[in-house]
């Protein structure tokens, strides 16, 4: 097997940049031909990965987090070329959905070499300018996209705890925003919600922000997306509800509505959408599901 291993172009620490080397060494012990691909920016890395795929590889692996995964899936969606993940990023939510242990380079590399794969869904974002992009985990807008803005600007701490701190800080200015949300539900019915919302989230996977189960019933193999809408409430009440969000039991709260959908269009002025932890575009955005669009390596049962 020949693999192109994409290293996170944003990694700077020795431990994180060294993960790609350790993974490559581990794969080579299994007889897997491994070439590391790493550019000085996301754009350069994307171009180098595209060239490696065009030259002919049997699989692609990434050493990084959800943002690096999103870079790779733009080239892999619908191709049947499998993706392996060495989870060394901040969030690693997609890796967690596949049963990979965070920062365990050797175990993740072993899973790739073993060759067990699963076909999973992706979500596709359509912008009004006609451009499109895929994401693997969650698209956030509203309060949670502002949390991402703050978390991404923080240099400390690393890991999921930075999202917890960002959430608490954003509560200071928390307010509802005018939204129009139109969606096709799982049974084909079309619905429209026009209301002030704190957030509107579209999920292919259960968690975001380093393990927060925003859509606890989401399944990336069911051919559907999960839409989570949160209406305004007092800051004190929402703060008391945070523990339920972290437990994944917020679905029964009156201010929260969850829908299984095939597609959704979200409109709110001045709001940016984040997908897999990175900005993906200003609203309005349309999101639909790409069933079984990505083949991934998973640990053998």
From TrEMBL:
<dbReference type="InterPro" id="IPR050187">
    <property type="entry name" value="Lipid_Phosphate_FormReg"/>
</dbReference>
<keyword id="KW-0443">Lipid metabolism</keyword>
<dbReference type="Pfam" id="PF00781">
    <property type="entry name" value="DAGK_cat"/>
</dbReference>
<keyword id="KW-1208">Phospholipid metabolism</keyword>
<dbReference type="InterPro" id="IPR001206">
    <property type="entry name" value="Diacylglycerol_kinase_cat_dom"/>
</dbReference>
<protein>
    <submittedName>
        <fullName>Diacylglycerol kinase</fullName>
        <ecNumber>2.7.1.107</ecNumber>
    </submittedName>
</protein>
<dbReference type="InterPro" id="IPR017438">
    <property type="entry name" value="ATP-NAD_kinase_N"/>
</dbReference>
<keyword id="KW-0067">ATP-binding</keyword>
<keyword id="KW-0594">Phospholipid biosynthesis</keyword>
<keyword id="KW-0547">Nucleotide-binding</keyword>
<dbReference type="InterPro" id="IPR045540">
    <property type="entry name" value="YegS/DAGK_C"/>
</dbReference>
<comment type="similarity">
    <text>Belongs to the diacylglycerol/lipid kinase family.</text>
</comment>
<dbReference type="GO" id="GO:0004143">
    <property type="term" value="F:ATP-dependent diacylglycerol kinase activity"/>
</dbReference>
<keyword id="KW-0418">Kinase</keyword>
<dbReference type="Pfam" id="PF19279">
    <property type="entry name" value="YegS_C"/>
</dbReference>
<keyword id="KW-0808">Transferase</keyword>
<keyword id="KW-0444">Lipid biosynthesis</keyword>
<dbReference type="InterPro" id="IPR016064">
    <property type="entry name" value="NAD/diacylglycerol_kinase_sf"/>
</dbReference>
<feature type="domain" description="DAGKc">
    <location>
        <begin position="1"/>
        <end position="129"/>
    </location>
</feature>
């Amino acid at each position: 097997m020949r693999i192109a291993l994409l290293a996170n172009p944003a990694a700077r620490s020795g431990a994180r940049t060294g993960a790609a080397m350790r993974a490559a060494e581990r794969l080579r012990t299994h007889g897997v031909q491994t070439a590391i691909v790493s550019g000085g920016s996301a754009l350069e890395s994307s171009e180098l990965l595209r060239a490696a795929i065009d030259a002919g590889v049997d699989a692609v692996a990434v050493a990084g987090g959800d943002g690096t995964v999103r870079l790779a899936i733009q080239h892999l969606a619908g191709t049947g070329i499998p993706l392996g993940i060495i989870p060394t990023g901040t969030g690693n939510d997609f890796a967690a959905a596949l049963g990979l242990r965070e920062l365990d380079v050797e175990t993740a590399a072993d899973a790739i070499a073993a060759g067990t794969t699963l076909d999973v869904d992706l979500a596709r974002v359509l912008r009004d300018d006609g451009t499109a992009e895929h994401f693997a985990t969650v698209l956030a807008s509203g309060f949670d996209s502002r949390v991402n803005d703050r978390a991404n600007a923080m240099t400390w701490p690393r890991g999921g705890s930075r999202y917890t701190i960002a959430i608490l800080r954003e509560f200071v200015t928390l307010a509802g925003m005018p939204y129009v949300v139109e969606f096709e539900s799982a049974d084909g019915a079309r619905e429209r919600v026009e209301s002030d919302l704190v957030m509107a989230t579209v999920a292919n996977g259960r968690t975001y922000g380093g393990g927060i189960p925003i859509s606890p019933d989401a399944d990336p193999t069911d051919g559907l997306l999960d839409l989570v809408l949160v209406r305004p409430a007092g800051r004190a009440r929402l703060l008391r509800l945070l523990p339920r969000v972290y437990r994944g039991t917020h679905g029964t709260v009156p201010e929260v509505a969850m829908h299984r959908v095939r597609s959704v269009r979200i409109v709110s002025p001045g709001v940016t959408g984040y997908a897999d932890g990175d900005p993906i575009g200003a609203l309005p955005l349309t999101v639909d599901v790409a069933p079984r669009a990505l083949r991934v390596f998973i640990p053998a049962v």
